[in-house]
Each structure stands twice: as structure tokens, then as C-alpha cells.
Amino acid sequence: MAKAQNSDPKRTPVEEIGKINLLERLLSVTGASLNDTLRYGEEGEFCWISSHILLLEGIDFDLIYTPLKHLGYKSVLGAFGPIVAHNYTPESISINIGLSKRFFVEDIEELWSGIAAALDEYKIKSVNLNLSSSLTGLAISLSSEGKQPKEILVQTPKVQPTDLLCLTGNLGAAYMGLQLLEREKVLFNSNPAIQPKLDGYKFILQSYLNPQLNTSIKDLFETSKIIPSDGVFINNGLADAVKFICKKHNTGAKVFLDKIPIASHTFEIAEELNMDAITAALNGGDDFQILYVIPLSKYEELNKEIPQLDIIGHLTSNSGETLLITPDGAGINLKAQGWSEGVSD
Amino acid sequence: MAKAQNSDPKRTPVEEIGKINLLERLLSVTGASLNDTLRYGEEGEFCWISSHILLLEGIDFDLIYTPLKHLGYKSVLGAFGPIVAHNYTPESISINIGLSKRFFVEDIEELWSGIAAALDEYKIKSVNLNLSSSLTGLAISLSSEGKQPKEILVQTPKVQPTDLLCLTGNLGAAYMGLQLLEREKVLFNSNPAIQPKLDGYKFILQSYLNPQLNTSIKDLFETSKIIPSDGVFINNGLADAVKFICKKHNTGAKVFLDKIPIASHTFEIAEELNMDAITAALNGGDDFQILYVIPLSKYEELNKEIPQLDIIGHLTSNSGETLLITPDGAGINLKAQGWSEGVSD
Fold it and tell me: Does residue B150 belong to the interface with chain A, where contact is any CB pair within 8 Å?
């Protein structure tokens, strides 16, 4: 039957092209270009954006150490992240859950309790849900719509190759939390009688299991009349986010290593786990921070009105050149894990 | 670690409650009610609806006999179906594809060519795509937004327990196509040298592999000034759709067996495969027809202006009583496969 098609010898692994290049190539077929969200409805009073994520068990989460309630909460925030990053307000969400026979009503209710907590916190009234079967484990797809008055869209500045790169918070902690949980899982698997040692790791575990979305900056933008030119939700490390912004706007970027906020606790745990905290910040995942792109002309105002934002670098006109500047002034090419690995991120 | 949670003895299978009851219960936690789409944005000039489907390999499609291009095309139409059924126009789509290592760039391009063909046909300009990894096979999540001028929403009549149930086309053919393909797959697995016998089955195979969405009725509604009170995209058999409408609006329904349109070819193949064509129409899947709910007062106009619509029955005030009326006048309770089976549909 369809097997005959597979005799075609041309089989290119995704890694060979890279995920982002493949996305661009496919999107161009439909006249679309690279984006992390979808903007639509600009002919009305409001403009809309949608964010859509697909989370698959074994790839995006491990139920051995992720409580279902936490997973539900985190999934919703993961869907809202790109909306908030684009300066829109989440308004509605549609959730599809694929379940294998392993899951019972109580499990679904536990997952839903976390989802409902997040929806309550964000005052989301338009909600839909569907359940379907899955052969292998849990699959969660979330699609959320966000709104903005059209006048803000009109005022939004165009990205310039001098724009500032600003971060909503520290990086690398979630990745360290994940590494710690992975370590305990290995120990648990080798001897289930061993009790996990999780005391004293609250900060990194919370960062991974119970991340919060920093929406306060979005509110401060409103009061201080600063409108970012773009924003990207960091869920795959800082390097990936910077490269995404550069690819999208055809710019380069310089990120200053000593400006990247990393918590001292993250450094401590990194040392304990024999890992590098800076790599965790650049290439780890699940940080739930936002990288805002803000016009250089707002530099003074930013420092005065929104000192919580860390200015970590700026865009440049050297398209595609994304540099990490070390304290001694050397420039190292930023490497994004997800990109080189193709779809495996 | 999280294992401790599983010591709770209360483990209720989804079948015990039923999918639709569980959906209602979960949605009520967030103040939402049962729906197949999500309506939002009603404060602007336009109102919006979103449709969101998750398709998992091995459950929703079998790549042994489903060409990737057909799968892509059909997936998009499956996402547009509920939007068209609600009398909205699809405007945008966001697609997430989860891929295991089995899939190469050429496969993704093949899948995308079908997706792009559908998007081109429906003139969709707002498109987004993301790729991620999957442990086991292909997962496709599609989220689409549809638009309607607010004035139509305002004019939309409320569902009444006398409303007519109207179908856009014949049922059961897609299910017969699927059964034929399953038969050939079994033969092929037992002896790969056997060539599939698919000649003479074009109608049912097309119905399954290359379904079309009947959007012409939606256009006729516009010209004839008939506005349906509701509509549901039938993707899980007529019985499921009728029961869904009744549950949503707290009504009953009568469907007249001899009014259900089934193609003579579907009857022939059903006989050949030792199956029942009526069961295929009531409980088979993938028909891609729409069941419209239309005020009784439009009966004459409907017959005159949109004779293509088959009036197959009507709603009643006997909440939850969904009856199939046989030609001799007997009433049989409609059974929906998906409902009794919980999530396995």
C-alpha cells in the first residue's frame, strides 16, 4: 500500500536543515513567515493573537516527578507566555487532552485542578476542553487567544537594529530543578526504597515545577507608556530566544555575559551537580521568563520606571550574528541547543 | 517520588462516567459549559470562534493507508469543520506537529503540501507552524480561528425544542472507506505481495481519504437570509452529533430513519463487507458533514431555497430523549458509540 512511497531514497533528517529553516521553508509555501504566535483580526477594534503549544509525555514532561496538578498549571502558563510576551492579554483557552488507558478520572481531575487554578488566576472565562484517546501516554494541546486594543498595535514601534534586549528575571533555575529531579529519578529507579533528597532545593524545584509568569512588567509598560517592539517567551533557553528574534527581524544581537541574571542558588546547585549555570541559562529550558525588545530611546525611562527589567544586550545590524560578549570584551557565537538539534527540543 | 499518589484506591475509568459527563463536570469547575468550539471577542465589531483538534497516530489515523498529503488536507478541513458548522468563516490556523525520529524532511513536506492545499483553497493568510519531537509517531494539533460580523450573532435565533435537524450530505461512506482500507491492511500484513483491491471503491475511499467540507450551504444561508440556531460538525457519527446538540441545549430529538441520506454505493459496500450501512451512518466517523439546527418557521423557505439540505428530524422538549423513528413509527433510543465508550472515540 503506501509503503511504495518509502522507496524514495531521499530521506533528509530534520537536523540536517535545522528546525527553524524548515519552519521558514514550510511557512513560505503558504505565504507566511516565522513567528511564535499568530496575529489576526486586525480589522476590528481589537487585534488578536493566538498561542498554541503541544506537550507530549516523555518529551515535554515526565510524570514520575511532575505532579499532574503542577503540570496542568504550568501548561496553561506556558500557553499564556507568548501572548504576554507580545503585550497582549490572554482571554480564552481551548485544551485538548489525549489520554491512554493508564489515566483515570481522578488523574484528569487532578490535572484539571491545576489548569483551573491558572485560569482562575488569569480570570479566563472562555474555556473549552476536549478529551480523546492516545495510544501512549498523555498529550496536552493548548491554544489560547489574547486581545489588545488596536490603538496599541498602531503605536507599537518597529524593531530597530539598536533595540535593547531586556529580561524579566533570572535564568537557569528551572533547568537545575529538572536536573535535580532527573538525578533523584535515577536513584529511585535503582533503589525505590531511597527517599528523594529534595530539602534545601525549593527555589530551583519551584522554578521547574511551579513557574510563575511575570505579568507585572506588562502592567508597568502600560503605566509608563513604554511599548516594546517585540517580545518572546523563553522556554528553550536564552540563546534560542535571541536567535529567534534575530531571525524574525533579520538582525544580529550582542548579549553581555555579565548582565545575564542568574540566581546565586542556581550557581550553587550547578556546582553541586557538576554543571555550568551559564549553559543552563543559555540553553536550558522551562524558564518562563520573557525577553522584551525595547527601543534604545527608552533606555533612561526603562532604568527609572522599570528597574526590575534586566537590560542584557541589544540588537545589531549584523544579520544573523548573535554574540555573547564576555567581561573581557571577547565575542563568542551564541549556540542554541534547539536549533542545531532540529526538532529535538 | 510521585508514586505515593497512586496508592489512592479510587481509580474510576472514564467509561464509567462517560466522556461528555466528565467534560461537563470539568468545565463547570471553570464556569464554562459544554461546547465543541470556543466563542470569544464579542465586544468588538466581529465575534470570533476557535476550533481545536488533536490528531494522534494510531488513534485518529493510520499511515499505512493514509497518504501524508491527504492527511494534511483532511486535518485542516477537520479543524475548519466546527467553524463552518457554527456559520463562521475560517480566518487563521496554527498547527503544531510532533514528530518521532521516523519522520524526515520529505515526510513533513508531503504532509505540509496537503495542509497548504487546504489553506490555499480556503484563502487562509494567517498561518503559523511549530515542530517538536514525539516519542511515538506523529501528533498533529490544529487550532483555527473563525470570524463573523457581530450583527449575525445578534440575529442568530435561540435554539427551540421544535427546531429542524438538517444534514449537508450523505453519511456512512467514509466509515465504509475506512473499513475497506482496514481489510486491505490485514491482507497486506498477512502477505505483502498481495496487491490491494481498491478499484471500484473510489466513492467510499474518497469519502475517507479526501473528504470535502460542504461550505456551499453556509453561502446559501447568507443569500436566503436563513440563520441556523446552531450547527455541529459530524466527525463521530450522526448519533453522537444529535446527542451533543441535545445535551448542549437541554432538549430531546427525533431522527427519522428513512430521512437519513445514505448513498446506494455505501449500502452496496456495506453488504459486501457484511456490515450495516445505517450503523455506519449513525456511529461511523469521518463523515465531514454538518448537522444544522434551523427554526421550524423556516421550513418552507428551506425546501424552496436550500433543497440540498436533508431535513432528517427535529428537536423535542423531552430533554435527553434522542429517538430514531423507524418507518413503522417505532422509536428506538439512539446510541452514540463515543459516549458509551468514554474517551475512546
Answer: no
Of the candidate ranges A238-252, B24-38, B184-198, B316-330, the one whose mean pLDDT is the lowest: B184-198
Q: Give tens-digit pLDDT for B261-293.
A: 999 999 999 999 999 999 999 999 899 999 999
Nearest by CB to residue A26, choosing from B16, B112, B133, is: B112
Does the CB of A344 have a partner CB in chain B at under 8 Å? yes
Domains of chain B: 42-155 (3.30.1330.10), 164-340 (3.90.650.10)
CB contact under 8 A, B30 and A116: yes
Beta carbons of A41 and B105 less than 8 Å apart: no
Contact B64 A2 (CB under 8 A): yes
Nearest to B145 among A40, A132, A139 (CB): A40
Of A212-221, A330-339, B50-59, B112-121, the one with minimum mean pLDDT is A330-339
ipTM topping 0.85: yes
**In 3D, which of A170, A117, A136, A166 has the Cα closest to residue A56?**
A136
Q: Does the pLDDT of residue B344 top 80, yes or no?
A: no
CB B102 within 8 A of CB B151: no
Contacting A residues, span 282-341, partner chain B, CB-CB under 8 Å: none
Q: What is the pLDDT of residues B56-86, one digit of tens each?
A: 999 999 999 999 999 999 999 999 999 999 9
Per CB-CB distance under 8 Å, the chain A contacts of B58 are: 135
Residues 29-48 (A) with a CB less than 8 A from some CB of B:
29-32, 35-41, 43-46, 48
User: For residues B1 and A216, which has the higher predicted lDDT (pLDDT)?
Assistant: A216
Helix residue ranges, H only, chain B = 14-17, 19-29, 68-85, 105-121, 150-155, 173-190, 202-209, 216-224, 238-249, 264-272, 277-283, 299-305, 337-340
The secondary structure of B119-134, three-state, reads HHHCCCCEEEEEEEEC
